[in-house]
Design goal:
eight-stranded mixed sheet; 324 residues; globular; alpha/beta
């Protein structure tokens, strides 16, 4: 039985999620270790999301629907402000929690081995393109286990005191707010731990345009939040170097580019052929052909989004503070 200091509020913020909110709530209610409450913050949904949550709340008093916020950061903060308990477990709409997710995500906190815990977001592709997108963009369970691990907002837990100390999620950020939050917690000296057994399942983007929008926004969020500047600079310089080599139209330059591209795509190809193994030869060949296209789509979207974010950051910093 939970003690007051170990009681758990499972929170999420949603907006226009009528097609998947039921699956998320069902997976919350099917946990091997149930939370003490489930707080769903509706962020101005225009569809039936709120009505569906209300229907679940009528059947199970553990569920509470609250309202607040204008983006995912302020929505998360609103959900946490309404939470009644000391441990916050956080997830997002569009996901399905493995039955033991909550048990594993909070255990390091309950046992005082960590202050902030992140789980493993497991892609669950349903098409060849989604499998390629998953292979290109999402590290496997072992690759995430690094000292620089940063918990994602879709699968994380922390004591509410951590959230208070770092000032909550940054409401001026529409994207990458979870990375900013975790980096700030690390800077404050809080212990961060990766728990690979805390699994959430999600479906990758289904089309190249939706993928491009996703990574454009991620890169824009990086720039606004001052995140990963070196990583983006390396991407620009790598592509610039590649274009310069190709412009020489020599066999040596083409060979250098081919070797570089092969090294860049080696790990995504390995993931595609092992983790997201195609079921037919046609699907395998389609995936092999699609992977460079997906990687290029990711990179071009990031290179387009980052300068937009830099401009937004500059405007934000130049804007005079609001008067009281």
């Amino acid at each position: 039985m939970s003690t007051p200091t170990d009681a758990i509020s499972l929170v999420c913020t949603v907006r226009d999620e009528e097609d998947n909110i039921g699956a998320l709530l069902e997976s919350m209610l099917a946990q091997t270790h149930l939370p003490d409450e489930i707080v769903v913050n509706d962020c101005k949904s225009l569809d039936r999301t709120a009505e569906i949550v209300k229907a679940y709340a009528r059947r199970d008093p553990m569920i509470r629907l609250v309202h607040g916020g204008v983006n995912i950061s302020s929505g998360r903060n609103s959900a946490i402000l309404h939470a009644r308990h000391a441990i916050i477990a956080c997830t997002d709409a569009g996901l399905r929690l493995a039955p033991t997710w909550l048990e594993h995500i909070v255990r390091p906190i309950v046992e005082d081995d960590a202050d902030l815990v992140g789980g493993y977001p497991h892609p669950a592709p349903q098409t060849t393109l989604e499998g390629v997108i998953a292979a290109a963009n999402y590290r496997d369970v072992h690759e995430l286990a690094t000292r620089a691990f940063v918990p994602y907002g879709q699968s994380t837990a922390f004591r509410i005191d951590v959230w208070r100390a770092v000032g909550g999620y940054p409401e001026w950020l529409d994207h990458c707010e979870d990375i900013f939050f975790a980096n700030r917690a690390r800077a404050y000296g809080y212990r961060i731990r990766y728990e690979p057994r805390a699994v959430v399942y999600f479906r990758p983007r289904a089309t190249l345009p939706s993928l491009a929008r996703q990574y454009f926004n991620y890169a824009r969020g990086d720039a606004v939040g001052g995140l990963f500047g070196t990583r983006h600079a390396i991407r620009y310089s790598t592509y610039a170097t590649g274009l310069a080599l190709l412009s020489r139209r020599s066999h040596a330059s083409a060979l250098i580019c081919a070797v570089g591209a092969s090294a860049y795509l080696k790990r995504p190809y390995r993931r595609f052929l092992t983790l997201f193994r195609p079921t037919t030869v046609t699907a395998m060949l389609d995936g092999i052909a699609l992977l460079p296209v997906v990687r290029a789509t990711d990179d071009l979207a990031k290179m387009a989004g980052y300068p937009v974010g830099l401009l937004q950051r500059y405007v934000r910093q130049r804007r005079p503070p609001a008067s009281d």
